[in-house]
Known about the structure:
The chain is α+β, with helices and mostly antiparallel strands. It has one domain. About 30% of the residues lie in helices and about 25% in strands. The protein is globular, with a radius of gyration of 14 Å. The protein starts with a helix and ends in a 7-residue tail after the last helix.
Amino acid sequence: MTPYLRAFQAYHRDGEPHIPWTTALDFHLQHGTVISSPDAFAMFRPVDWEAPDAEHLSLIAFPPSHAVHVWAAAGPLAGILYLSRIETHASFQRRNSRLHRVELRHLFKRRAHP
């Protein structure tokens, strides 16, 4: 199964979502970024890092920013981050859970070897 279809399937895992897939996809094509390759799929858009959670979880167009909200993704995280050039902050939500905000520099810290 392609990453696109895995993301689509995950988006619909718990039934029909509040915002239809095609609406979200169209919005991200116009106001964000959609990446689809044989290895990874992601749709995300810039957000104001300080904005309330509800604004991250709504289809609101923000100006370019170093922070993004990942609306849907499938494939290896490293590949998605490489293709997307996301460098600083990202938010995401797993279905029916709270919003997660991540400072990406913490994900890539390398441990010092003794």
